[in-house]
Amino acid sequence: MGISRLTTINFHNELRRAGAHSTHGWRRLLFLAQRYLLGTVGLVIMVLFVWMAISADLICRYDPLSVDSAQRLAAPSMLHWMGTDSFGRDVWSRIIHGARISLAVGIGATALGSSIGVIVGLASGYLSGWVDLLFQRVTDILQALPLLVLALVMTAALGPSLPNVIIAIAIPLIPTVARVIRANTLALRELPFVEAAKSIGMSETRIAFRHVLPNTLAPLIVLATAQLGSTILTEASLSFLGLGIPEPYPSWGRMLSESAAEYVRTAPWLVIFPGVAISLAVFGTNLFGDALRDILDPRQRG
Fold this sequence. Notes:
By secondary structure, this protein is an all-alpha fold. The protein folds into two domains: about 1-35; about 40-300, Orthogonal Bundle (MetI-like fold). The chain is built from twelve helices and no strands. Helix 11 (about 250-260) packs antiparallel against helix 12. It starts with a helix and ends in a 6-residue tail after the last helix.
């Protein structure tokens, strides 16, 4: 009976500790949300777009590719919340499904470009010597052209398709990530914990990936979040110029290119709603990226 009672008391104590940790975690989240209000707004916008992209088939009443000539250029109404385009396609459905394209390109290009940039920057900063010289000259060549110009060249060479657009946007992101990772690696490799790892016979590869790389993740997360908005904007720009996602798949940039010149006066909703979607997506990622930078920067903590 004594052992059973002691076990029950220990169980209740563990529950209290878990409840206390949970309460502390929620209080900290609430404190961060109040302190970084604009970052919280950006996070809410990002979560909203992700939810819309995932639930597009459930929250849309119409197929974004279906054409209805009888409803051509219909103004926003209860039947079509954001009106229809010149082919009678529902703009609301195309905006929601376009979020899938924009997020797929943004997340895919950011992940691919960041992954390659991390490898290049880590090898360049840690190995130094001729490896650093070679990688830095390659990154200098890539950085000589602006993001959009290099993406235009790559897309024109590869052709308009979803995988090609992701690759075309990811390649210009590599130099920026590589530079940041290299700078952090150069500082980290001189610290005592690296020397201690070498003294016990740990291999250079293991030191680089197990000890140096994890300490570069904070600036990498901030940079990747900031670049997410740039990739979404670049994809919209490529689609606007006819080099992005091909028809008939809905893309915010292509929706603008089809209607900006011809229907801006007669059907302004064809320009307003895709423009607002692009602006909100970029605005949300930038706000969240700025707040994340302040949270992860030790000099900003108080």
